[in-house]
Amino acid sequence: MTNPFQNRASTLNGPATDLVPVTPHNTNDLADVALALYVETGGSLSIVTVKGETRSVTVGDLSILPVGVRRVRNNGTTATGIHAFTVS
Fold first, then answer.
1. pLDDT tens string 38-75
2. In a domain, 3, yes or no
3. Does residue 1 carry a pLDDT above 90?
4. Are strands 36-41 and 80-86 parallel, antiparallel or unpaired?
5. Are 36 and 64 in contact, with CB atoms under 8 Å apart?
6. Residue 1 lies in a domain
7. Contact criterion met (CB below 8 Å) for 74 and 24
8. How far apart are CA 65 and CA 40, in angstroms?
9. Whole domain around residue 56: which residue ranges?
10. Cβ pair 9, 54 in contact under 8 A
11. Mean predicted confidence (pLDDT) in 13-38
12. What pLDDT band is residue 11 in, cutting at 50, 70 and 90?
């Protein structure tokens, strides 16, 4: 199988290289900053952005939130099936 990512530098405008399940936590950051979040079942999301701001948003089912995220907080998050788009 050929790998088109093998010799490419990771960029923010290219595709993510992985999709990682997220377990919301009030104090722990994600292992890698997310380029975006994918949410299977909609609801509220409480996130900490790359800039360090805490934000609350409501998303629908099967949503993609194209914001750099360092943490998904447990308090204030009702959405489920959250996954982080990452570049490693």
1. 999 999 999 999 999 999 999 999 999 999 999 999 99
2. no
3. no
4. antiparallel
5. yes
6. no
7. yes
8. 12
9. 18-86
10. no
11. 91
12. low
* Eight-class DSSP state of 30: P
Residue of 10, 27, 11, 18 whose CA lies nearest to 70: 27
The token pair that represents 85 in the structure block: 């788009």
| Confidence (pLDDT) at 17 | 86
Number of domains in the chain: 1
Q: Which two tokens stand for residue 30?
A: 């994600």
**Predicted TM-score (pTM) of this structure:** 0.85
Q: How far apart are CA 45 and CA 5, in angstroms?
A: 31
Closest among 84, 87, 71, 88 to 20, alpha carbons compared: 84
The pLDDT score that the predictor gives to residue 22 is 98
User: pLDDT at position 13, please?
Assistant: 63
End-to-end CA distance of the chain: 20
Q: 8 lies in a domain?
A: no
Does residue 52 lie within any of the structural domains?
yes
